[in-house]
């Protein structure tokens, strides 16, 4: 068995070379198969024999949460296969198209400027806590309709929930239960007093017979709230981390902001914010090269590894925003579960990075970059803190 915690790129390169699939520990007791090669990763992400639904059914039996809490948080598109997946995704997909997201640009720019203005006058800040986190968090809360007054509590629960097995079980339990209570209460409040945000329109659709159960409604709020910011914080953080190591590249982006979108695309490939896909379960034996994974086994698909695979990308370990093959990255997944929020994540991070570079041309790291701590667990790839000097 192998662990990918210490130095993911080096470890993953070794795993990619030695075998197409490796058994790794997932949490304290379970074991899963890690897929690391680009071609296998793309195939696995689009393979109906790797089921989300079969996994939910199996793990629900061992879930530590009471059945009502579990159902209120887990009946969302990322836990289903077609046709349920198609139905659940269709209900919200219209809100996340590139066109709908582009309409949010002025508001995101405004929020970005306000956050940066709040940093003025401070010499050293933690770019994660003070900027990379609050921006996507505020955007997704506004999009869903989470009142500002409730956001601080939610921020704490959300941090605990994405820590996964790294968080003590009782803390995890409390965070999940508190969030479930909160979402139920919020749905009640929005039903009584609708606004023009996404949750109110989902409630109306659900009440009008759109085929969304109460558990599906609260679960989609859970999914969007978590997926909508815990990932983008890593993209913004990783972008700044990479640029702090490359001051002349940062200067180029500052001088010509039209270069930023390509740079963000290369960050997505080079330091992918989500290390691996969510877990899947084989419904029949599946073969990768000389390894056959039996039926009923957990599979984890490494996006970070695929994006550094030399068989798919020229000079894969080089950061090069001018490369022409970056668009093939799988940082947002692939196939039917391809990230619904990709246009939003791209827009937020492009605005965030451009504005940060423009406002603080002398931005520097306040600590040696190789001493930063990275988030634990098999899912997220991002630094926990990023102390910087603004001027
Ligand atoms: C840099 C930021 C982001 C990254 C790297 C990212 C990555 C991913 C990945 C890899 C998946 C597929 C997981 C799998 O197949 O197991 C996914 C799915 C998803 N993401 Fe994102 N995500 C980001 C931001 C967002 C945002 C901002 C939102 C919401 C507004 C969002 C909503 C979703 C949803 C709803 C799914 C499930 C799609 C489905 O099951 O059909 N994500 N994301």
Walkthrough of the structure:
The chain has 391 residues and is of the alpha+beta class. It has a single domain, classed as Cytochrome p450. The protein is 51% helix and 9% strand. It has a 5-stranded mixed β-sheet. The longest helix has 24 residues. It starts with 7 loop residues before the first helix and ends with a strand. The structure holds protoporphyrin IX containing FE. Protoporphyrin IX containing FE (HEM) binds next to helix 13, helix 14 and helix 18. Protoporphyrin IX containing FE binds next to helix 13, helix 14 and helix 18. InterPro entries: Cyt_P450, Cyt_P450_B, Cyt_P450_CS, Cyt_P450_sf. Keywords: Heme, Iron, Metal-binding, Monooxygenase, Oxidoreductase. This is Cytochrome P450. Belongs to the cytochrome P450 family. It comes from Hamadaea flava.
Can you give keywords for this protein?
391 residues; alpha+beta; Cytochrome p450; 5-stranded mixed beta sheet; 3-stranded antiparallel beta sheet; 9% strand; disordered N terminus; binds protoporphyrin IX containing FE
Write the layout of secondary structure elements.
Layout: H1 8-18, E1 21-26, E2 30-35, H2 38-45, E3 50-51, H3 52-61, H4 67-74, H5 84-93, H6 98-102, H7 105-119, E4 124-126, H8 127-132, H9 134-144, H10 151-163, H11 169-192, H12 198-207, H13 214-227, H14 232-244, H15 247-255, H16 260-270, E5 280-282, E6 286-288, E7 291-293, E8 298-301, H17 303-306, H18 342-359, E9 364-365, E10 387-389
Parallel strand pairs: 2-8
Antiparallel strand pairs: 1-2, 3-5, 4-10, 5-8, 6-7, 9-10
Helix pairs in contact: 4-13, 7-9, 7-18, 10-11, 14-16, 14-18, 16-18
Bound molecules: protoporphyrin IX containing FE.
